[in-house]
Prior knowledge:
With about 775 residues, the chain is mainly beta. The chain has a single domain (about 1-55, about 75-764), classed as Beta Barrel (Maltoporin, Chain A). The chain contains 5 helices and 41 strands. The strands form 7 sheets. The protein has a 22-stranded antiparallel β-barrel. Strand 29 and strand 30 form a beta hairpin. The longest helix is centred in the first third of the chain and has 25 residues, at about 1-25. The protein is globular. The chain starts with a helix and ends with a strand.
Amino acid sequence: MKLYKKNNRLRVNLKCSLFLFALQLIIPVLSANGYAQSQQQATDRPVEAKTQQNKTSSEENHTAPSVPPNTTMLPPVTVEAKASEEVTGYVAKRSSTATKTDTPIIEIPQSVSVVTRRELDMRSVQNFTEALRYVPGVTVDQFGFDGRGFEYLLMRGFNGNPNANFRDGLSNAAQGLFFGGFITDTYGLERVDVLRGPSSMMFGRGDAGGIVNRITKQPSATPIREIEFQYGNFDRKRIAADIGAVSKDGTLMFRLVTTALDSDTQVKQPDAGGDRAHNERFYIAPSITWRPTVDTTITLMGDILNNRSQSSPFYITAPDGGFTKVLQSDTKFSRYNTNQSSFSYQIEHHFNEIFTVRQNFRHAQQSGQFRDLFSLDYNTPDQPTLMDREAYGTRERLRQTVLDTHLQAKLNTGPLHHIMLLGADWNQTNASMKYFEGYTNGFIVPGIDILNPVYSQSIPSPDFLINNAKQKIDQLGFYIQDQIRYNENWILTLGGRFDRIHSKNTDTVNLFEDPAANSHTKKSAFTGRAGLTYLFSNGVAPYVSYSQSFLPQPGLSSSGHAFNPTRGDQYEVGIKYQPVGGRSLYTMALFDLTKTNVLTRDPNDISGIRFIQTGEVGSRGAELEARGEVLPGLNAIGTFTYYEMNINKSNEDNVGKMPVQVPNTLTSAWLDYSFRNLGIPWLRGLGIGGGVCYVGRVFNDEQNTSSTPAFTLFDATLRYEYGPVLFTLNASNVFNNKYIASTFFNRNYLGTERTVVGTMAFRF
């Protein structure tokens, strides 16, 4: 472990040097005018405000700079904030995630939650799954603590990894053939939008549970200058910066977001020495926005993320299925190394008051080298506590290109007002993998005795090639949507979409002679959505909706034919309440969701490894959410989720049972109070907060014969702002509740231990 740290200090130091060098390049170009402007804003802003919002309006006066004679001047450009950026504390009023049009959340006939930048800051969120802890209908960390960066989550009981992953309205759901998948650094996000329920009508392939749309920090009309220093337990050290500038005429805006992390984790080898798994990350994301005219906006964005982790969170179960504190792997052997990058652009042009065209593009790529051990079985009756293990390693590459173009039209037909959307999108994913196991040259991985575990043993890297596989998926979709408003109260949302998917799988090795490893399939699907909302004058909005989803499945049936996509159908009824002029939003939703074409074992296949598509899973339940400022200075979040999820149809002995790892009850509450409103000078900069999360029990097997108990976690925060400096102290799992998140795959997954992080932010 120590050698690993020493060898990697050079890389960490180099990354920190690059980080500081970037700051040296950016800071001098910030204008004195912008500096003075930011100082004035720092004086006027609330003490808890950490991020800058675009507040420039079309009514502001702009003084034209003096220019030399005979110089041609362009008309002044006014930078306006998008309505989708309209945020008050913990509450966002609008979102484009559900409809691709800038729509008030109260008018959307489907469940939408928004985690704002302020909430992320106040809770000092350390990873992406933690950001969703106080969102209804979402289960995170079902595999316990995971320092590798993987973003496992369930939405309304269905797997959201990776099909629920979106970035700035474009699919980020590409997945490698084994471990590969894109990682999110939460410091680079402005907000997170969560759309629950089927959403294929707007976004194409996806599972029935919904999508999570990560909104990237973009250039702002207000200069941004922030540097953070962070230290926490497990020797966590992080430096971050958010720097932005704007030209004098407002036509050009720039932003740079970057972080560098060096930390141990809670994953610890319990033998002598107690080495901990280590984690390193470097992230940098520049962006620039150009507004050549008042009607045209062009934004270019890029990012690079490098992640290095030794964390392998798998703990061996005892022969009787009970919990042990014995790691399956070894921190000196495990490697989860990921390098990823992306480039994207967003173009928006207003032809006139009726027509607007938008085009969004992203190309992302990732390369990863992963190495770990997995358990086989307990050795022999003579060694009943010795677990045999096997080593494996993968080399993976992943590329995804996404393009979405749509035309928006605002029309009137008699008493009806239409916001129509006509669009097409294209999504291509290329994945490749080489999978190695340790079979050659008498390669034997030493087993591990759960009564006397010995770590840090010599384990050669696996060198026997098992798979050399490639996968290419092309998706082309066409969609149309109409949001129809009648008499200012009735809003009817209708939409339909047609998708064509072409996939190709190859494996030049294919030792196991799997026919699915070399297959070529073409599938198509139609999905739709319909919703009706009624707006009362007092801010109450009941709604009803129907939505569909589809998700292609890899592999072949017993007959050798490609599987059809799974289908999701949901009926949802709910009510939203947003007090007129208030700073809160309340939502209640009831849903009935069915997923069909689910794989189940073929009863005619003696081998038991072939599947047919006769399975069906149902999920019905209730979700409640309240967000807002309930009293001056007091912000609150409250959520409740209850599921009745069952396997409706199956050829296995699990009909009527609940799927594994799905809790039937989730509830959470968070309070945040700023003392600024008390009028006491020495308390003006003080703020406190705390939260509680309850996760119900989950079943560990398909027959529901064993379960993992429910658990409750408490969080807390304390902060103080003095001039341009903000100090925060955050604790997650305050009472250090030792709990098991789940027991699955004959392994136990430990929950996140108490984490204490102190942050000092400078805004200048």
